Amino acid sequence: MLEVKGLSFGKILKGISFKAEAGQVIGVLGKNGAGKSTLLKCLGGFYSYEGEVKLFGRELSSIPLRERVKLVNYLPQSFNPTFDYKVKEFLYLSTGVEVDDATLSKFGVLKLKERKLSLLSGGERVKVLLSRLELISPSVYLLDEPSAYLDPCVISLLTSYIRELSEKKKIVFIVSHDVDFVFKVSNLFLGIKEGELLFFEKRKGAKEKLEELFECQLENKEVVDEEKTNSFKPNCPNR
Q1: How much of the chain, in percent, has pLDDT values that exceed 90?
Q2: What confidence tier does 239 reach under pLDDT thresholds 50, 70, 90?
Q3: How far apart are alpha carbons 41 and 76 in whole angstroms?
Q4: How far is CA 7 from CA 16, 18, 84, 230, in A?
Q5: Side by side, which strands form the sheet with 2-9?
Q6: Higher-scoring residue by pLDDT: 220, 108
Q7: In the predicted model, what is the mean pLDDT of residues 191-217?
Q8: Mean pLDDT over the full length of the chain
Q9: Residues ≥6 apart with Cβ < 8 Å to 17
Q10: Would you state the pLDDT for residue 165?
Q11: DSSP string, the chain
Q12: Euclidean distance between CA atoms 175 and 32, whole angstroms
């Protein structure tokens, strides 16, 4: 279990509190600048926050970095590597795990393993980072705009993967401006407004507060029904 109490960071986050259980996929929603990505970075231990973040009863900030990255790990919104490694080199050096072809095939990066990171598209980099998370297999996944840059086939793969993580009892946080995508893959929803927690709700309660969250009238209030979330399965070529 991940328990957050009174989490604050500068003037951006103000007293955020909630509990996340194993198997929950939590969509983090809010306007630009609300503090969504900052929340993920606090949960990942990148920022020195005020308040408490406890994972399995242990304060996150007290867990040594080498151990913490195996418990909580992060898929960034953008990725600009310092060194121009080949894909396979990067995955090994950033995880310490031998890179197997099965993992690379799962995310469609097997054919990219000898390519330099600088030569990859934005979508290809996302797939490499998903492969990295799969190799680490943390307890908590922090996904910041994971559907950005991805084509429909890969979004379908990502949706299935998030469901697989939930079945494996992982805790997954997803920040995305694509509200439809968030509602497709999540079973809980956390709304941040001006740095404060507006709601931590299941689907129905979150839907009712979307217009208050975004401070506008939404043209389409009918987000995807939970039972239809896996209906789009494009016929993608083998990767």
Answers
A1: 75
A2: very low
A3: 9
A4: 5, 10, 36, 34
A5: 13-20, 2-9, 50-55, 58-59
A6: 108
A7: 94
A8: 89
A9: 4, 5, 6, 7, 51, 197
A10: 97
A11: -EEEEEEEETTTEEEEEEEE-TT-EEEEE--TTSSHHHHHHHHTT-S--EEEEEETTEEGGGS-HHHHHHHEEEE-S----SS--BHHHHHHHHH-SPPPHHHHHHTT-GGGTTSBGGGS-HHHHHHHHHHHHHHH--SEEEEESTTTT--HHHHHHHHHHHHHHHHTT-EEEEE-S-HHHHHHH-SEEEEEETTEEEEEE-HHHHHHTHHHHHTS--S---PPPGGGTT-----PPP-
A12: 11
Token couple for 52: 């408490």
- Tokens found for residue 153: 């086939």
pLDDT tens for each residue of 2-50: 999 999 999 999 999 999 999 999 999 999 999 999 999 999 999 999 9
